[in-house]
Design goal:
alpha/beta; 36% helix; Rossmann fold; 8-stranded mixed sheet; 294 residues
Length: 294
C-alpha cells in the first residue's frame, strides 16, 4: 500500500538486530562504548533519565590527526513516537571501526512532547557533543549529523536551524555536513496540509494542529546560502512522500548553488535503508567516510 508510513516496526527491527548482535563481539573489538551518558544535567527542567542520554563509540587507536577523529551524531527514526539508541549499536560499532567517533542519541518521544521539544533535545545532544567529544577522541571542529526516517528530518533541522541551536547552547552552528538516510519530515507543512495518504492523522500526534508549527519544523523552508553540505541516500522502493520531499529539498539546494549528491538505491525499502548499515562496505558508509574525511 502506497502511503506515508514513517512508523518503523520496532519488533521487526529488533528481530533483525538480534541476529546482527550475534557477531557484535568481533565488530566491537576495535572500539570503545561509553553507554547511557546524560547530555543534560539531572537538575535540568524536564530531565528524562531514559531519553536524555546517548552512547559514544570511539576507535581504540589514537587518532592520526592532531585534532582527533571526525564525529557523526546519529538520530534514530520511529515516526517521532518510538525508537531507541539501543537498537543502533551496530551503527556506532561500524563507524568507530572505520575511524569515526559515533554519538548515538535518544530524545523524548511523542506523546507527551511534540517535535519542537524533540528538536531541542537533539540540539542539546549536539551541544554536549561539541563541548565534550574531545574526551572521547573526537574533533569538535569536525562534527556531522546523520539520521534515518524521522531522525533524518531532525538531523536536517540541526544543519539548517541556527536559531534552534542558539536557543540550546550553540551560538554558532558546528555542523559540517548532514547525511540523510531515507529522511522523513523534510516538509511536513505541505504533507499535513494535503493529508492524501491513509493514516496521516497519526502525524498530528507529534506535530500538533498548528500549521505554523508544521512549517517551523520543516527544514526545507530553512534552506539558504551558507548551510552545510547535504548527502542523500534514498531507497528506490521507499514511500513516495520521502522520495518526493527529498527531491524537492535537493532541488532547493541546487537553486542556491549548493551541490547535493543524491543516490537512489534500487530495490531498497524504507527499513532496509538503515539495516544495511550493519555491513561495513555498503554505499552509505563509503559516501559518509568521504564527506567526513575519515
Amino acid at each position: 500500500m502506497r502511503r506515508f508510513l514513517l512508523l518503523m516496526p520496532v519488533a521487526l527491527l529488533l528481530a533483525a538486530v538480534v541476529v546482527m548482535l550475534a557477531t557484535e563481539y568481533v565488530v566491537a573489538r576495535p572500539s570503545r562504548r561509553a553507554k547511557d551518558v546524560a547530555y543534560l544535567p539531572a537538575t535540568a527542567p524536564g530531565f528524562d533519565k531514559e531519553r536524555h542520554i546517548l552512547d559514544v563509540y570511539s576507535p581504540k587507536k589514537k587518532a592520526p590527526a592532531a585534532g582527533g577523529y571526525p564525529v557523526v551524531l546519529f538520530i534514530h527514526g520511529g515516526s517521532w513516537t518510538s525508537g531507541s539508541k539501543n537498537i543502533y549499536t551496530f551503527i556506532g560499532r561500524r563507524l568507530a571501526k572505520q575511524g569515526v567517533v559515533a554519538v548515538i542519541i535518544n530524545y523524548r518521544l511523542a506523546p507527551p512532547v511534540h517535535v519542537p521539544e524533540q528538536a531541542a533535545d537533539c540540539a542539546r545532544a549536539l551541544a554536549w557533543t561539541v563541548q565534550n567529544i574531545t574526551s572521547y577522541g573526537g574533533d569538535p571542529a569536525r562534527v556531522f549529523v546523520m539520521g534515518h526516517s524521522a531522525g533524518g528530518g531532525l538531523a536536517a533541522l540541526l544543519a539548517t536551524d541556527d536559531a534552534l541551536l542558539a536557543a540550546n547552547g550553540l551560538p554558532q552552528n558546528p555542523v559540517r555536513g548532514a547525511i540523510m538516510d531515507d529522511p522523513a519530515g523534510l516538509d511536513m507543512y505541505s504533507y499535513l496540509k494535503e493529508m492524501k495518504y491513509e493514516g496521516d492523522q497519526q502525524y498530528l500526534v507529534p506535530f500538533g494542529n498548528d500549521p505554523t508549527v508544521w512549517k517551523e519544523q520543516s527544514p526545507i523552508y530553512k534552506i539558504r546560502p551558507g548551510i552545510p553540505p547535504f548527502l542523500f541516500y534514498i531507497g528506490g522502493e521507499t514511500y513516495p512522500s520521502i522520495s518526493e520531499s527529498s527531491g524537492r529539498f535537493r532541488d532547493r539546494l541546487k537553486a542556491i548553488g549548493q551541490p547535493a549528491p543524491y543516490t537512489v538505491i534500487a530495490g531498497r525499502h524504507h527499513i532496509p535503508m538503515v539495516l544495511q548499515l550493519y555491513w561495513q562496505n555498503n554505499i552509505i558508509y563509503k559516501g559518509l567516510l568521504k564527506m567526513v574525511g575519515a
